[in-house]
Amino acid sequence: MQLLDNEYDLLVIGGGINGAGIAADASGRGLKVLLCEQDDLASATSSNSSKLIHGGLRYLEHYQFRLVKEALLEREVLLKKAPHIIWPLSFRLPHQSHLRPPWMIRLGLFIYDHLGKRDTLPASKSIIFTKDSVLNASITQGFEYADGWVDDARLVILNALAAEQHGATIATRTRCIKAQRNIEHWDVTLAQQTTQQQLQIKAKCIVNAAGPWVASLFDNVFIQPSPQHIRLVKGSHIVVPRIHHEPCAYILQNEDQRIVFVIPFEDDYSLIGTTDEEYTGNIKDVKISKQEISYLINITNHYFKTPIEATDIVHTFSGVRPLLDDHSADAQAVTRDYKLILNNDDNQAALLSVFGGKITTYRKLAENAVDKLALFYPHMTEAWTKSAPLPGGDFSEKATLITQLQVKYNWLPELLLNRLVRSYGTLTNALLGNCSALADLGCHFGHGLYAQEVDYLIAKEWAKTSDDILWRRTKLGLRFSKAQVTALDNYLRTLNY
């Protein structure tokens, strides 16, 4: 990696959703921004979520009304900002005797409906499950409400693209290994992970948005105590062939009060999760346990007619969430709120650290973070991200966009076009470029992935490896065989990047 400059207004450490969101917000306000990420963008927590844009219905049980309200308001903002990767999703909550009485759940849903703005989503309602239901016969009543679904990793990528479009430099696989504070700036040493080449830069301020590593940076980079304790909580998911073909998701509540979602995923699959477990191991080694697999299978089989077993699992993933330590007894009760801590002791260069947070409120968190830095940048312009679409999201109706692209690229298979629009929106035009026939897309690696898309992801979206492409820029890893992955790896080795 070669950086064209070595002096920046702002260094953002961490290429997850908070770091990418802050980089986008700050660069759009006129700051010269460098974002560094030690691995790939969205390679940790931000690609291992339940992929929901939601207020957090269960957070009402813990009286986190401010957090829920902010998340519900942001839900509406994000549905408009990125209609290609975020869309409405109905959730059904089956009722059983171990849950709170129906009147209490109905009251909670009424509060959920009215606590935040609801422009596009329908109100909640009570429902009756008939004998034709996908649920076990003993479940006859429940509730339905609406939230949103998101391609979490692509949300990070699009924010990084927005930052770059406003002049930011995005340095992936680049680790911050040392930061020395002076009166007017930080002297920072970065290490390129593949070559270990070291680079020296100066930054007026630093934002520590390293997610699960936010506290460890104080020990290893800033050499000072962390101002906030965090709790690392592991959340795991399994993916199985589609349990049912209804377009809605289900929210299941176990007798231990933990919540599990069963969500339609990539057309042919069901995504089931999450778990909540304290985590103390190496963050990079996080993976699902046998106990978590059994837990997710058991609660799913308790509710659904179609049983699943471990041999049905086609994919698993786990993420470590860095949550504020609010001294809750149980991991699932730990707050999903966030805290921004600004430190510029003795008028030295400022350090802003991000603790906690959830994907739904990333934009508001980023806006608040950059607002806190305003006193150091008198030339900085006003907040701008609330009404600006993310790259590729500058359209109103997905069906209309698909129709327009079908006319322009009438040779493109319908399934492939739908996937491209769902990932890239109007950027599909840039991806396809001057292609005028299927043969122009180059080598076909399988399941609609052609060299044209691979080359685009390398050139425009910082992709380097098959995992970057198959699991974060797309979800085609669910469908690829080992032989197909090997063919893609071989192609990537032929490229000089």
UniProtKB/TrEMBL annotation:
<dbReference type="InterPro" id="IPR036188">
    <property type="entry name" value="FAD/NAD-bd_sf"/>
</dbReference>
<dbReference type="InterPro" id="IPR000447">
    <property type="entry name" value="G3P_DH_FAD-dep"/>
</dbReference>
<dbReference type="Pfam" id="PF16901">
    <property type="entry name" value="DAO_C"/>
</dbReference>
<keyword id="KW-0274">FAD</keyword>
<feature type="domain" description="Alpha-glycerophosphate oxidase C-terminal">
    <location>
        <begin position="385"/>
        <end position="490"/>
    </location>
</feature>
<feature type="domain" description="FAD dependent oxidoreductase">
    <location>
        <begin position="9"/>
        <end position="363"/>
    </location>
</feature>
<dbReference type="InterPro" id="IPR031656">
    <property type="entry name" value="DAO_C"/>
</dbReference>
<protein>
    <recommendedName>
        <fullName>Glycerol-3-phosphate dehydrogenase</fullName>
        <ecNumber>1.1.5.3</ecNumber>
    </recommendedName>
</protein>
<dbReference type="InterPro" id="IPR038299">
    <property type="entry name" value="DAO_C_sf"/>
</dbReference>
<keyword id="KW-0560">Oxidoreductase</keyword>
<keyword id="KW-0285">Flavoprotein</keyword>
<comment type="similarity">
    <text>Belongs to the FAD-dependent glycerol-3-phosphate dehydrogenase family.</text>
</comment>
<dbReference type="GO" id="GO:0004368">
    <property type="term" value="F:glycerol-3-phosphate dehydrogenase (quinone) activity"/>
</dbReference>
<dbReference type="Pfam" id="PF01266">
    <property type="entry name" value="DAO"/>
</dbReference>
<dbReference type="InterPro" id="IPR006076">
    <property type="entry name" value="FAD-dep_OxRdtase"/>
</dbReference>
